[in-house]
Amino acid sequence: MLGKLKIWKVLRGDPKNKRLPKISLFFFNRPKLSLAIWLAVVIFGVASYSTLLKREGFPSVNIPFTVVNGTYLVNDPAKIDEAIAKPLSEAVLKEPNVKRVSAESFGNFTTVIVEYKSGTDSVTATSNLEKQVRPNVKLPDQAVIKFDSPKFGFTERGDDMVVSFYSKDISKSTEQIAAKAKEAEAFLKKQDLSLVKDLSLIDPFVKGVDPATGQPAVSQKYFDRYGERQNSQNNFYPSVSIGLTTKKGSDIIETDKQVRAAVDKLNSEGEFNGYVGTLSASYAPDIKQQISELQRALLEGLVAALIVGSLVIALRASLITTIAMVSVISITLGLLYIFGYTLNTITLFALVLGLALIVDDTIIMIEAIDAQRRRTRNAAEAVEKATGKISRAMLAATSTAVLSFAPLLFVGGILGDFIRAIPVTVIIGLLTSFLVALIFIPTFARFFAAGQETDGRGECTRGSRRLGSQSCPFYRAPLALDQRFAASNLDGWCNCSYYWPGFYHGWRLAVFKSNV
After folding, report:
1. Do residues 346 and 411 share a domain?
2. Contact status, residue 509 vs residue 493, Cβ threshold 8 Å
3. Mean residue pLDDT across the chain
4. What is the DSSP string of 100-168?
5. C-beta separation of 416 from 410 below 8 A
6. How many CA atoms are closer than 13 Å to the CA of 455, on its beta-carbon side?
7. Under a CB-based contact definition with an 8 Å cutoff, are residues 422 and 408 in contact?
8. DSSP readout, 126-138?
9. What's the structural domain count of the chain?
10. 5, 237, 318, 437: least CB-packed within 10 angstroms?
């Protein structure tokens, strides 16, 4: 019988909504514990943002593709398609995890793109595919094929940065520039690039054997140019690219600094006179701009919360809203670090998107406490009644918002891997916002709002007496107006125009008495 009763209580839930108010009161009655927890999580969040979270361009995404590049120097697309592209495509299609194959042939080159079924690890699949295809496909002896697993990057091999090496002397041939770029590659490898995993020249030439003559042949595959604008003119120079990949988990902004320092040193060396190296492609500038936009959006949100909160509720409430928004963002960043995410283009976008969502719970809780404190002189009672009235509505609203983003967690394929950080970040922000409103807002109200009460007759209470009995008359009128115009937009302006003169008057009296 007792077991059935317990099961019934669980199924029935909390119809009188007593559990959530108990949580708020628990922390409200223990302000030191609440503030200690708040400081700890906020400091950890700030440390995550400033130091712990690594900056990168885009999150690592598994691309279920393999690219097979073939070289056959016959200068005939039909021949290279018949000799290389067709037998490769037929052999690849026999593999069970291959979804589709497409091939494109040119005069001396062919490219075969292999798409795998969803969930296939491209690195492992590429290695297995090469082991299966190479021994079983009959290709011309002069043909050269290469299997690659594509990655996100500035080049087809997935480089995270590119150094363009060129000469302003346009008479220099690509062969001369490439030869000097090989020396530049060796020079850069000797520099302090501790965050760089690999640095290598992207050779613009492909070497092979001409099947018609049997002699070695060279064909240029890449034609790079570096352009810059000077004196309202666009100048372009033939260039050769040096690609760099960063170590896993390295900070892209710090790596950018290392590479720029090494390139500056390269340009100052006398052996490279007449040549210029420049970091032409890097994610760091975009990440810096996005971080700046996040900070600007947060600042604008804080200012908007101050203004709107002052007009609609009260100045004190707007201050609590501002503190809560900073707290939610900080805690969210800390949780992203714990869950192994980085500060990249996707998570930064999600944080900016979430700014409009995380403030709802805070405003609802503050307004409810502000309304209750006008009806009772007991701060704990005001918090309990306010939480009891709106906590379930907050929980329902937060749950609905979380469930609306949850389907994005189950999107598969490349798109799912790419955007999964958006719902994760927003959901973390929403849940954090609810917990901050439930746990910390009542504690903040204890110091900012709940302790400064009137007794319903315009008389000053303990909160105002702390500033000195001389300043009490300056509070009677505005506090009475604060009650009278609680439902109007004049409340915030009353706070601004009356409270601050009262604080100033009390401070002047205190200074005057201390000087006497």
Report:
1. yes
2. no
3. 80
4. EEEEEE-SSEEEEEEEEPTT--HHHHHHHHHHHHGGGS---TT-EEEEE---SSSSTT--SEEEEEEES
5. yes
6. 6
7. yes
8. HHHHHHHHGGGS-
9. 4
10. 5
